Amino acid sequence: MDPCGKGVFLTGGARGIGRGLMEALLSKGAKVMFCDVRVETGKATEAELQQKFGADNVFFRECDVTDSGFGAVDICVNNAGILDESNWEKTIEVNLTAQIRGSQLALDHMRRDRGGRGGLIINTVSGIVALSVHFCPVYMATKHGMIGFMTSWAKNPKMKDMGVRWRCFCPALTDTDLLKEANDADSGKVEDFNAYQALCSVEGAVMSVDETAQEFLKLFQDQDSDDAIFLVRHNGASGYVRRQLVDSDGVSNIVTVD
Ligand SMILES: NC(=O)c1ccc[n+]([C@@H]2O[C@H](COP(=O)([O-])OP(=O)(O)OC[C@H]3O[C@@H](n4cnc5c(N)ncnc54)[C@H](O)[C@@H]3O)[C@@H](O)[C@H]2O)c1
Ligand SMILES: CCCCC[C@H](O)/C=C/C=C\C=C\C=C\[C@@H](O)[C@@H](O)CCCC(=O)O
C-alpha cells in the first residue's frame, strides 16, 4: 500500500518511535490522526508537525488507549507501549489488551466484506521477541502475545475477502524515553540493568528514531506479502521472518509455526 493520500490513525505518537513513524508517513503524503496520554507533548508534536507538513495533515487527540476507540482510517498503527514490570497489569492493558482492541476495531471498520475499503493494521511489537529477557517477563509476554494474535489473524482464510493485511513491526533497540526511563536505576522498572547492557552489546548500536522510522517505510513496499512479522535489523537487512521450533540439539526436525 502506498501511504500517499491515505488516512492513518496512530497511537502513542507524542514522542519516541510513534512520532518517528508519523514523520515518515507524513513525508510520504499520508494524513495522520494520532493520540496519546501525554497532552502537552502531544500538542507540541502536533504544532511542530503541522508547521512542517501542513495544518490539514496532522491532528492530535488526547486519548488513553486502554479506554478509547477511534474513527475512519486506511492504516491503523497501534504503537503505544510501556515497560513497567512494577505495574504489570497496566503493561498488559496498554501493550496487549489495547493493541488487540485497537486491531479489532480497525478490522471491523476496514473489512471490505462488510462495506469497508480494506486496509493495513500495523502493531508495534519488538525485535526483542527473538530473545528471552529475564528482567522484563511481563513486557515479553505482551510482545509474544501480540505476535500470536497478529499472525493468527493474518492466516485467516477470509482475510483476502476482507482486504485487510496485518503487520507486526518489530524494531530493534531504539533511542527513546522508554529506554531512558527503563534505565533509571531508581524507577525499579528494570531489576537487572547489567542484563540490559549485555543485551545492547549483543545487539550492537541502539538505533535512532529516524533510522527505525526509515526501516518502517519498507513495510509499505511489499503489499502482497502474506508474511506478518517484519523484523528491523541494524545492518539494513530488515525483512520478514517466520517462527520455527527447533530441536534442542540443533536445527534438525524444524517445525515451522508461521
Ligand atoms: N525503544 C525501543 O527500543 C523499542 C524497541 C522495540 C519496540 N518498542 C515498542 O515501540 C513502541 C513505542 O515505544 P517508544 O520506545 O517510542 O516509547 P516512548 O515511551 O518514547 O513512547 C511511547 C508513547 O506511547 C504513549 N502511551 C503510553 N501509554 C499510553 C496510553 N495508555 N494511551 C495512549 N498513549 C500512551 C506515551 O505517552 C508515549 O508518547 C512501544 O510499543 C514499545 O514497546 C520500543
Ligand atoms: C530494557 C529493555 C527494553 C527493551 C524494549 C524494546 O522492545 C527492546 C527491543 C530490543 C531488542 C531488539 C532486538 C532486535 C533484534 C534483531 O535486530 C535481530 O538482531 C534478532 C536476531 C535475529 C536475526 O538477526 O535474524
Automatic annotation (TrEMBL):
InterPro entries: NAD(P)-bd_dom_sf, SDR_fam. Keywords: Membrane, Oxidoreductase, Transmembrane, Transmembrane helix. Its EC number is 1.1.1.141, 1.1.1.232. It holds the Pfam family adh_short. It catalyses: resolvin E1 + NAD(+) = 18-oxo-resolvin E1 + NADH + H(+); resolvin D2 + NAD(+) = 16-oxoresolvin D2 + NADH + H(+); resolvin D1 + NAD(+) = 8-oxoresolvin D1 + NADH + H(+); prostaglandin E2 + NAD(+) = 15-oxoprostaglandin E2 + NADH + H(+). Belongs to the short-chain dehydrogenases/reductases (SDR) family. This is 15-hydroxyprostaglandin dehydrogenase [NAD(+)]. It comes from Batillaria attramentaria.
